[in-house]
Here is the input.
Amino acid sequence: MYLAEFKLRFGSRKWYVRRIVEADSYEKAVEIAKKYAELMNRGEVKWELADVYGAERPLLIGEEELKKLE
Here is the structure.
């Protein structure tokens, strides 16, 4: 499982969005994320792929994650 981070732009505004990507390899995850950004660019908001990360428990904050930070 991978986590893709996208930079979104709308005029002078920008923000980041993350999406979980199901893929067997990092290369496949990047390919899927690039295709996703391309398909999402049909509106006024510009999507750009910022990075892809390997993740075991993406977007979860639990006791395990808190212990890792201590």
User: Anything to note?
Assistant: The two ends are 25 Å apart (CA to CA). The beta strands are 2-10, 13-21, 46-54. The chain has a mean pLDDT of 89. The chain has one domain: 2-68.
